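User: Predict the full complex structure for these chains.
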Amino acid sequence: MFLRRSLLTRHSVLPGFDLALGFALLYISLIVLIPLSAAFLKTFTLSWQQFLDATTTPRVLASYRLTFGASFLAALLNAIFGLVAAWMLVRYDFPGKRIVDALVDLPFALPTAVAGIALTAIWAENGSVGHWLPFKVSFTPLGVWIALVFIGLPFVVRTVQPVLEDVNRELEEVSATLGANRLQTFSKVIFPIVMPALLTGFALAFARALGEYGSVIFIAGNMPMVSEITPLLIITKLEQYDYAGATAIAVVMLVVSFVMLLVINLLQAWARRRQGGLA
Amino acid sequence: MTTVALPATLAAAGAAAPPNLRRATGEAPWVRRLVIGSGLLFMTLFLFVPLATVFHEALKKGWAVYLAAIVEPDALSAVKLTLMAAAISVPLNLAFGLAAAWVIAKFEFRGKQVLLTLIDLPFSVSPVIAGLIYVLVFGLQGWFGHWLQAHDLKVIFAVSGIVLATVFVTFPFVARELIPLMQAQGIEQEEAARVLGASGWQIFWRVTLPNVKWALLYGVILCNARAMGEFGAVSVVSGHIRGQTNTMPLHIEILYNEYQFAGAFAVASLLALLALVTLVLKYWVERLVQGEKRSTGDRVE
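Assistant: Here is the predicted structure of the two-chain assembly.
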C-alpha cells in the first residue's frame, strides 16, 4: 500500500496498483536501468583526458561523420518519399493498394541481418540493380545510406498516414472556395497540419538509423575512415578487449540517443497540441 | 424540412460533386500519376525487391541445396536456440507489458511520464550498446564476472546472455501496443465490475483482458518477430560458438562471410517467411480491431 498512498494523485477503487507498479519498476531496473548505468559507471574509470582521447581519434570522428551524415540524408529521403507514399495510400486508389500498405512495415518485421545480405545482393557491383549503375554502391558510404533508407522507411509513412486521414476535407473545400489553387491549398492548409507528424517521423527514422548495425555492416564493407559506422567501431574495440574505449564511444552515442528521445517526445507533444486545435 | 444545398455538402456526396469542385479539391491527373508512380517505384525498390531477392537467392541453386542448408545440424541448432530465446523473452515482456499498461492506463500517479519514457528507452538505444551493457555487468571483467566464474556460471558467450539481450531489445513492444488502447478504453467497466464485487484478478481476466486481446496478440507478434530476428545485441554477447550460441541471424552472418550464399539466404528465407506471417497477422488484427471499434461505436450511438 506504500506506493498507492504516496504516488496516486487521484483516488481509485481499482486494485493492483502496488503489485503492478512494483513489478514494472523492478523489471525496468533489472533489465534496463542497472545495465545502462554500468556503461556510465565504466567511463568514470577513465580520466577526462582519456575519455576525450578515446572518443575523438580521427577514426572515431570519421565514423561519427558517416553515421550522422548518412542517417540524416536517409531520414531526409524517407521524409520526402514517406510523405508521397502516405499521400498515395490515403488519397488515391490503385490496384494492389492493400498489399503495398501492408508491406510498408516490412523493415520493422524483417530481421536486420536478412535485410543486410539482401541489400548487398541487390546493390553489389554484380547485383540485380548494382550492375546497371555506373558507380559503386556497396562498400561505399552510399551503401550505408541505402541500408539506412530501408530501415527508416516505415517511420514517416506510419506517423504521417493517420494525420492525413484525419485532415478535415472541408478545410480544403473552404480554401478552394476562397480562391486558392490546389498547390496553395496543399502548402498553406494541408502541409502545416501534417508537418509536426512529418518532423516526428523524420526524428524517429534518424534516431533509429544512428544505432543501426545489422543491415549496414554487410553492404558497407567496413573500411576504417571510409565506410565504418560508429556501432561497428564499438564492436571492434570490444573484440580487442578495449572495454573502456568501447564504452566511452557507447556513452557518446547513448547521450545522443537520450537527446533524440527528448526531441521526439517534445515533437509528439507539439503534434498532439496542433492536432487537438485543428480537429 | 428543406435545406439550402451548399457546395461543401455537395462535395461530401463525392461523385455527385460538379467537375469544377472536384478539380478544386483534388489533384490534376498528371500529379496523381506522378505521386503514385514515384511512390510505387520507391516502395518497389526498397521493399519488394529486397524481399523477392531473399527468396530468389535462396532457391537459385535448387530445392536440394535449399533443404540441405536448413536441415544441416548447425542450422537446426541455431533454429532451436532462436525459438528458445523467443519462448523465454516474449512471456517475460508480456507480463511486464500488462503490468505497465495496467498502472499507466488505469491510474493517475506522480511520475507517470517518467515511467512512459523509461519504457521507450530500449527503442532508442543501439542494439550494439544493448549487448555491450550486459558484457559490462556479466562479462569476465564486469561487475559479476568474478563471482560468476567462481560459481562456474556463464552469462556472456552463453545462452542466458542471448536471452537477456533479447529481452532488452524487445522490452517495449507489448506495453507500447497496450497502453494507448487501454487509456482510450478508460476505467468505467473495471469500476463497475469492482462495485459489483469482483476481485482484482476477476476484473483483470474477465473485463480488461477480453477488451485488449487483439492489441495484446499484435504486441506479442511484433515482440516475437523482433526476438527471433535480433542481430546486433545478440552478436555482442553470443561469442558465435557454432552449434551452441549461434542464433539464426548469427548463423546467416557466418555462412555469408564464408561465401556460402545459398545457405545464408536459405536460412534467411525462413526469417523472411516469419516477417511475412507477422505482416499478414498485423493486417488481420488491425481489421479485427477496426471492426470491433465500429460495432461498439454503433452500440454507444
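Chain B has a mean pLDDT of 86.
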